[in-house]
Amino acid sequence: MAYAKPLPKIDTLNRPFWEAARQGRLVVQHCTGCGDRHFPPGPVCPVCLSDAQDWVEVSGRGTLEGWVDFHRAYWDGFKDALPYRCCLVRLEEGPVLVSNLVGDAEPRFRAKVHAVFDAVTDEVTLPKFAME
Amino acid sequence: MSRELKDKVAVVGVGNTRYGNFPDRDEYGLAAEAFRNALEDSGLRKDQVDGLLVCRIPYYARMGEVLGLNPRWTLTMPPHGRMSAMGIIEAVAAIEAGLCTTVALLYANIGRSRRVNYGGDENPSTWDPFGFTSPGAAHAMMFRRHMELYGTTTRQLAEVSVSIRYHACLNPDAVMRNPITIEDHESARFITAPLRLLDYCLINDGAVCVIVTGRERAKDCRKAPVLISGFGAQETYAPSSISNFDMEFWYPAVKAAGEQARGMAGVEHADIDALMCYDNFSPTVLFSLEGLGFCKQGEAGQFVEDGALSLGGRLPVNTDGGHLSNSYMQGWALNVEAVRQLRGECGTRQVPECEVVQYVQATPCTRSIIYTRG
C-alpha cells in the first residue's frame, strides 16, 4: 500500500538533511564562520549572517524536552495511527528537533534519547527518537 | 515604551457583530456591520475617520470601497492571532505622528463557516512528516513542559476554562453559554494530549471594530473616552518552524512587555482590576500570569485555583468569556471587553469600580496594553 502520510518537501536548502537521513546519519546546518549549528536550515547563519555554511553530522543523542499525543488526524494518512506521539528533542549539540518518540516505554522528561531511522519510502527516511 | 504616548490616544468606539456560523456572509459584510456599530457607539461621522487598519480582511481597498472611506492612512495586518494589540499600538503611533486623526480598526473572521482547521496542509511546516501540526499541539507541548518542570496539573488548567466559561454564561453575546465544571474538563476528549477539547478556543465567524482618536477629539465623542495609558512589546521569533511555541513559555517577552506597559501607565499589579488575556489555548493564561508577575514563574497553577480568575476572585480574567467561550476574534474582542468594562457597560459581568484593565497576548509577538478610565 502506498505511504499515505505527508512527506517532507525537499528543496535546495534542506536536501542534505534528508539525504543524510537516508544514509542513517543525522546532520544539522553549520556556520563555517562562527560555528553555530542550527536546524531547520536558513539561507544565512542566524548568528553572524554568513553565507558560508555546510552540514555536520551530530551524535543523534539528546534529551527528551516534551511530548504530546495526537488524538486527532489533520491528515487522512494519520487516521489509522491515532493516537500517535510526537516529541521535542534537544540534541547534545544544541539544536531542538520535533520528531516521533518510538517504543512503548512511558516518556520521562529529560530522559536520554537517541535517533533511530525509519525508512518510510524508498526516498525518505525519517529520523525518529527512542529513550535509552 | 515611550512615556510621551501615555494617555494621548483614546478608544472612542467599539462594535461587533453576532458571533456564530454565517456561511452566507463574507468578511466585508461582517466588518461593515461592526464598523457601523462602532461608529454609532462613538457618535462620530463616517467622514471623520481618516485612518483604516484591516486585519484578516482580504483587500483593504475593497473594504474602503464597501464603507465609502478614502482615508489618508491605511495599514493591513496579516491574519494571525497576535495582531490586535500590534494594530492598536500602530494606530496610536500614526495618530501621534500626525499621519491621521481617527483610525477605524477592522477585524473579521469567517473560519467557522469555511471549515478552517488551523493544521495539516493549511499550514505546511518542516515537521509535517512526523504528524506534528497545529497551534494547539504547540501549546500542548508547552503545557507538558510546564507540568514536568513545575508540577502543574490538568485540574489546575481546568480552572482557566471553567472561570472563563462562567463569564461567557454572563455574556448574552457569547457562543458557549452552558456552565462547565472541572470534571467536565477532565472528561472531555483529548485533541492533542495533554490538552482536551475544553482547552481549545472556539472557531466562529464574526467581526469587531475599534475606533481610536486623540484625547482632545475624544472629548466630543458620545461616551467617556477610555485611555490607552501604557503598552509594551517584545517579539520572540525563534523557533518559527514550530509556530506558536516557545521553550520558555514567552516568559521573558511577557515580563518585558508587562514591565514596559506598567511603567508607561504608572500602575502596579494591585491597581489592575481585570486582565484580558489572549486565550487561544488555556495554558496561555498560565504563561501570561507568570510573565506579567501576578505570580512567580511556575506558580500559575496554584494561583488560578478556587476560581481565582472568576468575577469576585483575585483577578477577573476574560470577563466576556474570551476565545475559549465567547468568540474567536483573535484578541480584538478582548480589547473591546476592556473598553466596555471601563465604561461600566457589562451588566451582570461588570467588574465593580473598574478603573484599570490590562490586555496581554503571550505569542511570538507579545504585546500588552493598559487601558484606564478617562
Describe the structure.
The complex is a heterodimer of chains A (132) and B (374). Chain A is mainly β. Chain A has one domain. Chain A contains one helix and eight strands. Chain B has 374 residues and is an alpha/beta fold. Chain B has one domain: 3-Layer(aba) Sandwich (Peroxisomal Thiolase, Chain A, domain 1), CATH 3.40.47.10. In chain B, a hairpin with a 3-residue loop joins β10 and β11. Chain B is globular. The model of chain B has no long low-confidence stretch (mean pLDDT 97). Classes of the chains: A mainly beta (132), B alpha/beta (374). Chains A and B meet through β4, β5 and β6 of A and α4 and β5 of B.
**Count of distinct strands of chain B:** 11
The ordered H/E elements of chain A are HEEEEEEEE
Shape of chain B: globular
Count of alpha and pi helical runs of chain A: 1
Helical segment count of chain B: 12
Q: Can you tell me the number of structural domains of chain B?
A: 1
Describe, in short, the structure shown.
The complex is a heterodimer of chains A (132) and B (374). Chain A is 6% helix and 39% strand.
Write the topology of this structure:
The complex is a heterodimer of chains A (132) and B (374).
Chain A: H1 15-22, E1 27-31, E2 37-38, E3 53-57, E4 61-70, E5 84-91, E6 96-102, E7 112-119, E8 125-131
Parallel strand pairs in A: 6-8
Antiparallel strand pairs in A: 1-2, 1-3, 4-5, 4-7, 5-6, 7-8
Chain B: E1 9-16, H1 27-42, E2 51-55, H2 60-67, E3 73-77, H3 84-96, E4 102-109, H4 135-150, H5 154-169, H6 182-187, E5 190-193, E6 195-196, E7 206-214, H7 215-218, E8 226-235, H8 251-265, E9 274-277, H9 282-292, H10 300-303, H11 322-326, H12 332-343, E10 356-361, E11 365-373
Parallel strand pairs in B: 2-3, 2-4, 9-10
Antiparallel strand pairs in B: 1-7, 1-8, 4-7, 5-6, 8-11, 10-11
